[in-house]
Automatic annotation (TrEMBL):
Name of the protein described by the UniProt record: Glycosyltransferase 2-like domain-containing protein
Superkingdom of the source species: Bacteria
SUPFAM superfamilies per record: Nucleotide-diphospho-sugar transferases
Signal peptide: none
Alphabetized UniProt keyword annotations: Glycosyltransferase, Transferase
Amino acid sequence: MKLSVIILSYTTTEGLFEMTSNCINSLIASEKSIQIEVILVESNKDYVNSEFKYPEFVKVIVPESDFNFHKFLNIGVKESKGDFVALCNNDLIFYENWFSKILEVHKNNSHIESFSPSGKINDFDFAKEFELGYKVRTHVLGWCLVTTKKVIKRIGYLDETFNLGYADNDYAMTLKKYNIRHALVNSSKVEHLEREKTKKNREGLSVGFKKLRENVDLDLNKLPNYVLTEANKYLLEDKKVLDDYIKFHNKWGSPSLLYKKNRIADLCIKFHVGFLNRIIL
């Protein structure tokens, strides 16, 4: 059994190099009986000429194109040789036997083909070994996704329409569309070292809703009406986020429509006719 781990990185400072190195070191130390292939897709175009060097066993790929979350992951997947692939951020710490726990769930439940480890490191008293579901940030954790190479090929690789935002949402919907079961594995532990936003960054978002609407570099007349409401002003605070959200809307539908389609799709899965989701979604 071989696991290919694709890690996205941007090595431009000593701090970022150290964080990625810690990620790789913890990954290698976490499994003793699993063969692990490490593929680093590097966004620093000048990495080769930089002072930063990762171990020789790490395959570093520096794409010529600009960063695109799904595109860079696809580049890593296409270069991978493993039966399983893990799609990872570089701000992770892997704990002992994290993948072995996922592999155990898969062997005992062959119908489950996509997984996320738990980010709750100190929660060892879990009621269930795993939880099925497609809810983003609950079951589907975009910072670490594990699946088989066969699943990636079945869905046609990741949709490169999504630069970054809503990439995990698109992955979750794609799994459901293709009737691929996903599970959060509580016994598998991987820590996500998220950085908290600084006070200054939060203050920088406290501009008026009217001003936000005026500054969005999109034709507001072409935006869905539900977006232009006070409840959704967060979408207008970042043009890239808004752009990714509109892509998600155009592909999967409005929240109200998606809610209805999801209800039907969930029933199809429950009654073992999930193959109909290719039509429903």
